[in-house]
User: Fold these one by one.
Assistant:
Number 1:
Amino acid sequence: MAKIDIGPPDYKKFLSPMIRKNYGKWKYHEYVKPGVIRHVAESGDTLYSIRIGSPRLVSIDFIRDICTLADEYCEGYLRFTSRNNIEFMTGDESKVEPLIEACKAKGLPVGGTGKSLSNIVHTQGWVHCHTPATDASGIVKSVMDDLYEYFIRDDLPAKLKVAMACCLNMCGAVHCSDIAILGVHRTAPVIKHEIIQKGTEIPTLVACCPTGAIRPDPKNKSVAVNEAKCMYCGNCYTMSPGMEILDAKNDGVAILVGGKVSNARSAPSFSRLVIPFLPNNPPRWPEVTAAVRNIVETWIKYARKGERVGEWIERIGWERFFTLANIPFSEKCIDDYIFSRETFRTSAAFKY
Ligand code: SF4
Ligand code: SF4
């Protein structure tokens, strides 16, 4: 076959020999203890995965450290999960405990498997992106430091997935996680005409707005924004730096709950808004940290065994959730979007 240099390489080339040998022929898996999963294949092969949390945005030194551990204990094999956990894999049971000790000695947290809090999947934040309403790494570090106990124990009612996206363009998995932390802008972009005049493609800028809030302003050789139509997504700022969406005073954080990707027990579901705004309060975001902990602890206290956050809320009802979690209800929590078939309103009752 001709060699091509486009597209991702064939992932099978990078699988560990045991996974390649038993591909599609795994019989079952079990959670041995927090941070350790055992997969057993039809052939009788047994693979241990040891999971550690990562900060997602990692340094070369960090990568060197984990590669050294993989070389020493796992014949050089490790993988990253979609929530930025790192999993070391070995077929040799005698290496499991020494590897865990080596991880701990390096300060790497071991856990996140089964009924525990997985690593938080998150976006770029102030480190890299241009439209964030808040930081990603900073909030995630603060929340994970606070919730660390739930990463290293696996006796929660069910799996707990937390996600963070620093704007509603949402490069994170905030639409489908048990608890989602979302950066929100609350003011329309401030137009800097001189920047737009200098080098912005005005038709592209007008076309980029999902709500049609931008129209050409020929008099100024620029654009105008209909603020009533703007949903503060920041898309226009991606098209032109002349559409300044960042607003230090009004940007902040919203909390959503109840999403999941899993098909187990109930269908996948979208998360819903429960706290419309918390202030941006770096470096440790105490309001966000406390809000997430409160939801986690209320769920642990009241959920039945096996119930994800959304499943628990659907069973007890959203009204009861707001009462139990002591979260003030506001009109912003009402789903008033009426243009989607799936969420079309069919009764006079309001939806969350
Ligand atoms: Fe940028 Fe928004 Fe993605 Fe954050 S979520 S990295 S602000 S596009
Ligand atoms: Fe349109 Fe979003 Fe820009 Fe508002 S922020 S004008 S909705 S593109």
Number 2:
Amino acid sequence: MSLGHVDPRPLPQARGALRTDWTRAEIAALFDRPLLDLLYEAQQVHRAHHAPNEVQLSTLLSIKTGGCPEDCGYCAQSVHAETGLKATKLMDVRAVLQAAAQARDHGSTRFCMGAAWRNPKDRDMPAIVEMVKGVRAMGMETCMTLGMLSERQAQMLADAGLDYYNHNIDTSPERYGEVISTRSFEDRLETLNHVRQSGMNVCCGGIVGMGETREDRIGFIHALATLPDHPESVPINALVPVKGTVLGDMLADTPLAKIDDIEFVRTVAVARIAMPQSMVRLSAGRESMSESTQALCFMAGANSIFTGDKLLTAPNAGDDSDAAMFAKFGLAPMAAADPAPPAGLRQGAG
Ligand code: SAM
Ligand code: DTB
Ligand code: SF4
């Protein structure tokens, strides 16, 4: 990393253009920039595409918790983890709609439902479809994350009116196999393709702080920014290390147990610059982040967060502390908007 050197030249890409031909070297060069140059550039890109002081609030609900057959090394919900988490059945539609109404009353404009599945079974689909329709009828944007989808399942969700489907690549293609063995990076891309083809918006990001290298973070952002279309929403999670998970145990009491705050901020800034129109979501891990680090993340272009006391199973910052932080920063919750049109219809999409 160069220290104390200010490069006065503008970045190579025209500000505002959407590029999907980023090279790894270009992404690496962004990570290497002096921090203040990087933040300045990210903030300029951010302001060219987004309201600078508005942050989208989303609420998460785990509609089916634990007992997941996949072996994702970070996840408390895997049957391979020894976290003592009690597995539940799929919630009933009424209870989900009650939780959604509560989230809306707390100012949330997007409701995200997550299930600890490798993939939904066809017999689950009617209830899932009812959930989507019910939440949408309340005037909220809808998002689901249910694991892998067949082409047909993706189309059923799109037809029900699901606005976003979350499916993360999680890390670089090279590191993927070290974190998860029960499915491949290509499996992830296949589901993302089904989601894209169905006309739904794509929500795709990953986790930093899993003991990965800078090179992996470069590969992670590069993989996202060179998808055929940028995901409309990019969640950047900081690993929540959970005792009993492979990664939680492996990293515990090591210097890698927590990602360096500034490296996290750099990752957010590079995501913002590489994917100018996407919503960049500061996702898991906020609970253990200082307000100052979160301020830097917003400066770097993050414009979406999860609200409430709980993510899926892990604790979250909570409404009261977020309201105080928003007041301190002069941030306003983003109003519910019509969901972004599918990527092919956006200006400059390529
Ligand atoms: N089972 C579905 C799947 O994996 O596609 C959906 C739910 S899964 C919990 C959604 C995402 O949450 C994962 O892809 C991962 O990025 C994130 N996640 C899970 N556990 C996490 C943890 N301990 N810390 C940070 N992010 C985590
Ligand atoms: C995403 O990227 N982050 C959210 C959402 N997608 C579903 C989930 C974070 C989960 C954190 C760990 C937990 O609550 O178990
Ligand atoms: Fe299952 Fe999703 Fe957790 Fe992986 S991240 S173990 S697929 S719930």
